[in-house]
Amino acid sequence: MKKLAFGVLSLALAGSLLAGCGKTETASGGQNQASSGGNGQAAAAPSLAGKKIALVTQLNIGTFSAQYIDGVKEQTEKLGGKLTVFNSENDLAKMSSNLDAAVNQKFDGILIDHGTAEALEAGVKKALDKKIPVVAFDATLTVPGVTSLEQGDQKMAELTLDQLAKDAGGKGNIVKIWVAGFAPMERRQIAYKAFQDKNKDMKEIAAFGAATNNTALDTQAQMEAILKKYPNKGDITAVWAAWDEFAKGATRAIQQAGRTEIKVYGIDMSDEDLQMIQDPKSPWVASAAVDPKDIGRIQVRYLYQKLHGDQTPDTVVLDPVFVSRDSLPKDKQVSTDQLAQYVKGWGGSQQGYTDWLKQMETAKK
């Protein structure tokens, strides 16, 4: 996810920047009439300056979500836009209301982070009827005209599960932390089912998971209960966490219980996650992810392509990478901004970039 990934994912952006650099606004109060879109010609790119962009999120929990929003903010500002974030606090009814507000306040473009078709479809169709383009990330939307981004969730799950099986020698007892109802989670579950079918000696002895406003803390409490149920070394071989908020909670529970023979394999990556993985005393040893800032940047690029009148694909799949402790330096802590030095394919994605977008960025400097 905001993710959750998930994800997935709880900060609302506020504040303003000097004119010409764009600004970020919180989703409170009305908006003025938005400026008109581009006319579809490359020479019209400067007319896209000052666009008002809405980001409607299902939930903003953890550092992954914060870095994703940073990516959205950064790319919007590079293009001279003004961003407003609507945080729905994991309330789908509120998310639907926030989407309606973004449409009624006449934003020039709308970005969606997670959510379901039931909550969003009517609002999205209303936006498109009013000629407001929409680009979604990890939402279960199939509305014609909407470009949807996803992380290659099955691939991320495969990368982590294959490493788990390899490290365990193909046998052992595992705990799965996963939750239904989110598009990326459902895709990750497909890979997990295939993993179970292929690895008959890897036994699932417990499964749990819930997306809450305190997901990591709640997961920690649930994992503590699992550890008490299976108190002996060897009872649990590994934990597979389908979201980094799950991985953080499980890792803390295992560390506090002194059960670091249990290894944790996660999905998604943030600076906080990376710090935990680099810790040699941490049970969290690997994760698969797409740079959350890149997700935000790419989503904005496709929205501006739509504003420019360009044709955009229905679906954009982002390529994940596998990050293990073994691939990271042991003598210093690194951030996700530095991760590309150690993990090939991390960050700096050129997906969604066009020549005119790059020229527009240059013109704003």
UniProtKB/TrEMBL annotation:
Pfam families noted in UniProt: Peripla_BP_4
Keywords annotated in UniProt: Signal
Compartment(s) where it occurs, according to its Swiss-Prot or TrEMBL record: Cell envelope
Keyword Signal among record annotations: yes
Location (main, coarse): other
InterPro entries per the UniProt record, alphabetical: Bact_Solute-Bind_Prot2, Peripla_BP_I, SBP_2_dom
Periplasmic binding protein domain span: 57-310
Lineage: superkingdom: Bacteria
The keyword Signal is assigned to this record: yes
Signal peptide residues on this chain, from the entry's feature table: 1-19
PANTHER family assigned: ABC TRANSPORTER PERIPLASMIC-BINDING PROTEIN YPHF, D-XYLOSE-BINDING PERIPLASMIC PROTEIN
Family named by the database record: Belongs to the bacterial solute-binding protein 2 family.
Protein name, entry field: LacI family transcriptional regulator
Organism of origin: Gordoniibacillus kamchatkensis
Taxonomic classification: Bacteria, Bacillati, Bacillota, Bacilli, Bacillales
